[in-house]
Design goal:
The complex is a heterodimer. Chain A is α/β, with parallel strands linked by helices. Chain A has one domain (about 15-235): 3-Layer(aba) Sandwich (Rossmann fold), CATH 3.40.50.300. Chain A is built from seven helices and nine strands, in the order E-E-E-H-E-H-E-H-H-H-E-H-E-H-E-E. In chain A, helix 5 packs parallel to helix 6. By secondary structure, chain B is α+β, with helices and mostly antiparallel strands. Chain B folds into two domains: about 1-45 and about 235-370, no CATH class; about 60-220, no CATH class. In chain B, strands 1, 3, 4, 5, 6, 7, 8, 9, 11 and 12 form a ten-stranded mixed sheet that branches. Chain B has a two-stranded antiparallel sheet with strand order 2-10. In chain B, a hairpin with a 2-residue loop joins strand 7 and strand 8 (about 160-170). Chain B starts with 5 loop residues before the first helix and ends with a helix. The chains are: A alpha/beta, B alpha+beta. The interface between A and B is medium-sized, with 31 and 25 residues.
């Protein structure tokens, strides 16, 4: 890929790679010794404040691409960069997860028997942030998403929407530049799903945080800035 | 290290599992403390018997046990005559039995022996020791378990003796023993003219080298050891020490396996949670450090509780009349350090595999099947 070549997700405009929050170029990933090919030359670009939808059915490779971008897995081949770091390198992966990325999963992946506040402290503990400082950030974030009154409640006592909002707060704790959201509305009812989606979109629009959203729901994909259709491990712009 | 704030939270969340680990270490600590305190107490008492008002012990070279040592009357006299010697007290050890009591330690001593001088006489007096033939003197505990009183006749080793007096000593071995005048003991044990050891007090302590050289030059078959040297080299003490530590460490190994099992279960049941920590920015080292610190915390709690249990057991045993003088509640610093070291080592060793396993959890793999 050239420094300025257009790729899916870029909306056709030319942009220097250094100005992108994330990019992937011809990324391949397979499992089971190459027998199960999941990604077959996937490429994308993500700009600051952009909300990019990876839209496709289950098993199409959306989550795998998010995992590669987030440094949770490494590609078989292909280049990728997130916030100027290389998720293929262990040291960069750790730095990415600590400071530049936030993850939101379909099933929230919070620690169920901890309280909302304790869960939100986890990313701050990883980077050694002082408790007072992270407590202030927690108050700020939870007020913003309407969870200020739920800080002392355990996750298991929250509704699905509250859990997902908590997960979004956790993703935002270390002020990342990119949020990777893997089917964040998948386990929620229609109305709650819309609330959670609106929250993610406001993060992109108001705070300039880029969001890559993996979803199988067309209505959410269409509400994003860019839609990349994921089918059999390949991406195509819709 | 702020991430370690998760440790108390994790232990609180899995409190039953943590308590099982704590109990394993606590029992190990209590067992080791009790065994070592009893053994060192017993050794200490034996040491004090030998070291009463003396600096050196002279006995037969290369004997496996002091009971088999023979020092002749002539040799005792020669030792006494050495210019460095202030006092020299021969002592003959023997084992006797009486109906219902197959093993009783018997001490053959001279009337001026410092053990008799330091004893608290319940009946009779030191002046009467050896004054009349056919008399035996009892430690107060021996008198108790033999059911004997002064003036009564008792059977010891198929012979009959009259109890000439009863005295209490601080030393459990002595207090549970019977005392005979040296000559009577030699006759009784068919070891005429022989003693087991000679406890020697020097005029000046710094003359130890000259004394030792003089004894060993004149009698190559004898050895003179300073009390400290003797305690370190005496095979029986070393066997006792070794056995105590071996038994204690075995108890700890069981505790360590308990911690390993606890931590392994803890990791297996938290695979997803550990993956979440990794997603939130925890490094594999931080995850391993969490597991190690949890194990170390379990060990620390186990140590505290174990010491408490051990002390309660020891104090209780000390107050049982039958154990009087045998249990030493004073814990030596070396034992405390050894127990703490062993407990932490076993707990940390028990956490190695769980920590290794936890640090290798791949978040993508663990979170894939939502």
């Amino acid at each position: 890929m050239n420094d300025t070549s257009p790729t899916p997700g870029n909306g056709g405009a030319k942009l220097r790679k250094n100005d992108l929050v994330a990019w992937a170029d011809e990324v391949w990933k397979s499992y089971d010794g190459g027998r199960i090919g999941v990604l077959q030359g996937a490429s994308l670009e993500v700009r600051p404040g952009q909300m990019v939808a990876l839209w496709g059915p289950s098993g199409s490779g959306k989550s795998t691409l998010l995992h590669l971008l987030g440094g949770l897995d490494v590609p078989d081949r292909g280049d990728l960069s997130v916030c100027g770091l290389d998720p293929r390198k262990e040291a960069d992966r750790l730095m990415l997860r600590r400071k530049h990325l936030g993850f939101v999963f379909q099933l929230h992946n919070l620690i169920p028997d901890l309280t909302v506040e304790e869960n939100l402290h986890v990313p701050a503990l990883a980077v050694g942030r002082p408790r007072g400082e992270s407590a202030e950030r927690i108050r700020e974030l939870t007020e913003k998403v309407g969870l200020g009154h739920r800080l002392g409640h355990r996750i298991q006592d929250l509704s699905g929407g509250e859990r997902q909002r908590t997960a979004i707060c956790r993703a935002l704790m270390n002020s990342p530049g990119l949020i990777l959201a893997d089917e964040p509305t998948g386990s929620l009812d229609e109305k709650t799903g819309e609330t959670v989606f609106a929250l993610l979109r406001s993060l992109a629009e108001r705070e300039g945080i880029a969001v890559v959203l993996a979803t199988h729901e067309r209505r959410f994909a269409e509400a994003c800035n860019h839609i990349l259709r994921v089918r059999e491990g390949r991406l195509s712009e819709v | 290290m702020r991430f370690l704030r998760l440790v108390p939270t994790n232990l609180r969340r899995h409190r039953i599992r943590a308590l099982i680990g704590v109990a394993g270490i606590a029992f190990g600590v209590a067992a080791m403390l009790t065994i070592l305190a009893i053994v060192t107490g017993a050794i200490g008492m034996f040491e004090r018997i030998l070291a009463t008002d003396s600096h050196f012990l002279v006995f037969e070279r290369n004997v496996s046990d002091l009971f088999f040592s023979s020092v002749s009357t002539e040799q005792v006299a020669a030792v006494r005559a050495l210019p460095q010697v202030d006092t020299a007290h021969p002592l003959l050890f023997g084992i006797v039995s009486s109906p219902g009591h197959p093993i009783i330690t018997c001490f053959g001593v001279e009337p001026d022996d410092p053990r008799l001088a330091k004893a608290e006489w319940r009946s009779g007096s030191r002046a009467e020791f050896g004054a009349k033939p056919g008399e035996i003197f009892l430690g107060s505990r021996a008198a108790e378990f033999l059911g004997a009183q002064a003036g009564e006749e008792i059977e010891i080793g198929r012979a009959h003796f009259r109890v000439g007096g009863i005295f209490k000593t601080e030393n459990g071995f002595e207090d549970g023993g019977v005392f005979l005048p040296l000559a009577a003991a030699q006759e009784f044990f068919h070891r005429e003219g022989l003693s087991s050891v000679v406890a020697v007090k020097l005029r000046h302590r710094d003359q130890g080298g000259a004394f030792k050289a003089a004894v060993e030059a004149k009698y190559p078959g004898l050895i003179a050891l300073e009390n400290r040297e003797f305690n370190q080299s005496y095979t029986q003490f070393r066997i006792l020490h070794f056995t105590a530590w071996a038994v204690g460490i075995c108890a700890f190994l069981l505790g360590g396996l308990g911690v390993a099992n606890t931590m392994l279960l803890s990791v297996f049941s938290r695979i997803r949670e550990i993956a979440i920590l990794r997603v939130c920015g925890f490094s594999s080292r931080q995850v391993a450090a969490l597991i190690f610190t949890e194990a170390a915390s379990i060990a620390a709690a186990g140590l505290a509780i174990g010491f408490l249990i051990g002390l309660v057991v020891l104090v209780s045993l000390q107050n049982v009349p039958q154990f009087h003088g045998y249990i030493q509640v004073t814990i030596q610093p070396g034992i405390v350090v050894g127990i703490i070291g062993t407990a932490l080592l076993t707990a940390i060793a028990g956490a190695v595999y769980p920590a290794q396993y936890a640090s290798r959890i791949q978040p993508a793999e663990a979170l894939r099947y939502e």
